Model the fold of this input.
Amino acid sequence: MTLETDGWLLISGGLLVALALLIWWRTGRYDIKGAAIDSVWQIARGRRAKDNPTAIEDMAQHIGSAPTHLGKARRTVFIILGHFIAQALGVAALFVAAIGLVLLVVGWFWN
Done:
């Protein structure tokens, strides 16, 4: 079974879109802005409880669980670095998704 050009364009476009979705999914856990919005939404809906901390409270507890000030500073730096790297990868994933969608459209209309 051989594929023509349109088939390869469709496959490569679909794989690029899937890769972009995978990048967004994996970098979502490092997004401080998203965690803040999720925390506000959780409090607004009245779902905040002692045994169910918000995402921001979870990050603060993770930082606070370090035994030394140096450990707390190190965890804070890594959380902030992870946030900025996740933002950069999110922008890259946007471009990858756009290229994948262009390939899908070109593959769909290829004669």
User: Anything to note?
Assistant: The CA atoms of residues 24 and 95 lie 12 Å apart.
